[in-house]
Amino acid sequence: MLLIKPEQHDSLAVECFGEVVLEHIHRSLVNHYVDSAIDVTTDTVPLMQSTLKTLQRGSVTRQQALDNVLKAILDRDMDDNDRVILDIFTNCIKNLPKRPLLNTISELELCATYIDPVLRPIFHDPDNKRIFRWFDHKTLDHERTGSSRRPDSIVCLVEQSMVTATNGFGEVKVKGSKKQDLAVDLTRLGIFAKDALDIHDLDCCICFQAFGGHLTFYLATLHADGAYVFFEVGKFEVPFSLEDVPGLIANVDAILEVRHVYKKWCNKKAAASHPANHDFSRPTLRSPHFDELVHYHPPSSRTPHYTF
Q1: Distance (Å, rounded) from C-alpha 308 to C-alpha 297?
Q2: What tens digit of pLDDT does each residue of 164-189 get?
Q3: DSSP E strand boundaries for the chain
Q4: Could you tell me if residue 298 is inside a domain?
Q5: CA–CA dist 182, 174 (Å, integer)
Q6: What is this structure's pTM?
Q7: Residue 175's CB: how many other CB atoms inside 10 A?
Q8: Residue 204 to residues 20, 94, 141, 201, 308, Cα–Cα distance (Å)
Q9: Any domain includes 300
Q10: What angle do CA 258, 270, 134 make, to 5 degrees?
Q11: Is pLDDT of 297 > 70?
């Protein structure tokens, strides 16, 4: 699987393909899969900005601010993108402290209090049979893959109250985690995504990696015979307090691009339109062979090639 992060290419990949070619591949993939023109209606951002300003000044309570947003939703002609962004915004109003907490934030609190309110409106859509779950178990396909790895979260497709496919994975680490641990998590995400592509015959599989409040999103696809690609499609910061919400508002485009990528591309392939993935797939390196190759305790002088 070829990992492509803009301007952070592995030295071996640069040696094989050249930096110019790798940058061109990334731009071509992003242009194909990401809709950069997607946006909210003109009233949505000013509504969030004005609501946040009155709330921070103490002119209204949180409940009054939520009521004002709900009234605006009912009074205005808003599309699905507006509703998703406003859902995230109201989650922030309901959940976030006024100022950042000085206490240490655990991984559980990071997931439940700060990441979930932002990601759930993006991925969780029960009416369209898409479920976002905090998991920390062996993957639903572990009996077929033989893998004992446990993702922190999954996104899955549901039919008749049963999960039929997993089309997204997430790994979370608190701020201050070792870079080597983050590199291992990124490798794990690539393996989770590859297995999902092979087993469920997906067009694409989406993954996110959280390092504190910094979220980076990747899309995996079987681009050609044996050619798996895992490339960055977006990133943004989740807020830790109401003071941080303006930064989230400034990243509305990035949020909507990630949501569009997931909804449009992370689906099972249409049987009549594309060859099945298993026709082009390659076997995955399994545990414990994977553990034999990965250095969980590398020398301190050796640092991961990628920034997180």
Answers
A1: 18
A2: 999 999 999 999 999 889 998 999 99
A3: 2-4, 130-134, 153-159, 162-173, 205-211, 214-224, 227-237
A4: no
A5: 10
A6: 0.91
A7: 12
A8: 25, 33, 17, 9, 23
A9: no
A10: 40
A11: no
How many domains would you assign to the chain? 1
Say if 7 falls within a structural domain. yes
Strands (E), 145-251: 153-159, 162-173, 205-211, 214-224, 227-237
Q: Which residues are paired to 218 by β-bridges?
A: 207, 232
Structure tokens at 5: 């992060």
Residue 211 lies in a domain: yes
Report residue 226: phi and psi, to 5°: 75, 5
Q: Which residues pair with 224 in a beta bridge?
A: 227
The secondary structure of residue 270, as a DSSP letter, is P
Query: Residue 181 has which token pair?
Result: 């641990």
Q: Using CA atoms, how far apart are residues 98 and 3, in angstroms rounded to an integer?
A: 39
pLDDT per residue as tens digits for the range 207-266: 999 999 999 999 999 988 888 999 999 999 999 999 999 999 999 999 999 999 999 999
Residue 55 domain boundaries: 2-293
Q: What is the distance between the alpha carbons of residues 248 and 243, in angstroms, rounded to a whole number?
A: 10
Kindly report the CA angle at 58 between 56 and 63, in degrees rounded to 5? 90
Q: How far apart are CA 218 and CA 192, in angstroms?
A: 12
User: Tokens in use for 139?
Assistant: 């993957």
